[in-house]
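Hi U.,

Before I forget, here's the chain from the pilot set. I'm dumping it here mostly so it's searchable later in email.
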Amino acid sequence: MDEIDPEAGDSEEWQNEYLIWLYSNNKEKFDMYIEKLLEDVEIIDGVPNLIISTQGEFAQLFCDNNRNDIPVNTIESILDGEYDNDYYYDLSDDIYGAVIEELTKENLKRLKEYIIETLNGQKIVAETEVLELISQQQGRDYVIVDESNIDEIVDDKETMIHLMDDELMDLRNELSSIYHNSYNTAYDDDLYDSVWNELDEFFERKGEWVSRPHTYKSNTEVQYFKTPIHNFYQEILNYLNDNKTYGHSGLLQYHGSYLSLLKEDQECLSVYAPDYPDSRKVDKNINSYFTDYI
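Structure:
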């Protein structure tokens, strides 16, 4: 039985039965034929891995006709890291609450230093209650911002909004950019996670990029994405059993790849876009990006 060639000319009627037998009796040879029949599968140290050119190839497993689903071409872009969203969130009334109130102590300290440096020597008109109180303490009809009063100023939302409408307008623009990028990055991450939450049933999320010699170009390497396949052998055995009587269309080589087999043999995956990103990720990004701007 070991010497039978499952790709012989008359194998359509018995190939699946033979491969099932090989799995139980000669696993090494079974693996060899699987790698030959499914071009995107490589079994490394007994672990079946999917080998593909880009993560975007996973997109073919998703539904493309459901009204509320993320479209397949968008999923492909998300997985390949090429999705270019540009969501706009109007912070005109809440930049203080959205950014300043979420800063870490370290970044808040940097913000105060920035404000003192920016307003150094300027006579600030006392147009808020806090500024009026400070001007009285300084014995002037205006305010000089320094280390003795910066805490009061930054802690007061009304005063900060007033200053960002005038003397600190550049700060407002920088904080808006920080929030915009933090929001979009968090949303992109959530989109990616939403897609992979569906793929997790079949594949290991933490794959890796590997280099392989080019098929016909010497001294040239090609990058591939490699990731372990979940429940691979059970999926293959189920397919072989379910398709014993379907002739050529029931053979593994009819599909030629594991992704094509899953696409035809499994229900398409469905994924919806989240309405908003995780606010914790947005806040984390704000503090991560802050010193790049301020």
